Amino acid sequence: MAGYTLYFSDLCPDTAAFVAELKEQGIDYEEVNITASMDNLKRFLKLRDTRPEFEMRKLWGFIGIPVLVQPNDTLIFELNDLNGTACTLTARP
Question: 7 and 41 in contact (C-beta within 8 Å)?
């Protein structure tokens, strides 16, 4: 199973806080800066164009970064999800 991969841009204002939280949690990851090379951008676009998780972000006009691909192939887009502070609805017992 692959490790973590972070797709980001050093030009994105959301990246710094996301990276800081990854470091705080001690998560090692492969860095893919989509604005550093055409190969990195193509790699990200291949992911974005084949995953339904990006559809709403594209509709809202967002690029979809930063995004962390976890070893189980799920995606984390939001800092609140990364640091465990997201509010989610749960079913009643």
Answer: no
The model's pTM: 0.86
How many Cα neighbours within 13 Å face the side chain of 2?
A: 11
At 64-74, the pLDDT tens digits run: 999 999 999 99
CA quadruple 79, 83, 84, 85: dihedral positive or negative?
negative
Tokens standing for residue 8: 């980001």
Query: Can you read off the two tokens belonging to residue 6?
Result: 């972070």
Gap between the Cα atoms of 41 and 86, Å rounded: 29
Query: Rounded distance, CA 21 to CA 19, Å?
Result: 5
